[in-house]
Design brief:
Mean pLDDT: 95
Helix content: 55-70%
Strand order of the largest sheet: 1-2
Number of domains: 1
Oligomer: single chain
């Protein structure tokens, strides 16, 4: 399992850019709402504790890595565990 996290300010900025939202507070509320919905879904339907770090094999701060860097790290981890060659 992989987990992707980012600082709130980074997330707000990205939501504002992608959703074309001009108000930071609106973007922050949207993030809070989506986080709550995701957590409820994971807890209720999948029976998965999304907040437990032990539930994940790797956690990435997407503010610190590019998608290509993350892909290379994931591939290296899969190779290290002999899940791919």
């Amino acid at each position: 399992h992989l987990r992707f996290v980012a600082p709130l300010q980074y997330r707000i900025q990205k939501v504002m850019e992608i959703q074309k939202i001009k108000d930071r507070l609106t973007a922050e509320k949207l993030i809070e709402e989506k986080d709550k919905q995701r957590h409820e879904f994971m807890t209720q339907y999948i029976k998965f504790d999304a907040y437990d770090p032990a539930s994940y094999d790797l956690t990435f701060n997407i503010a610190q890595f590019t998608p290509d860097q993350i892909a290379h790290i994931v591939i290296a981890a899969l190779k290290a565990r002999k899940l791919i060659w």
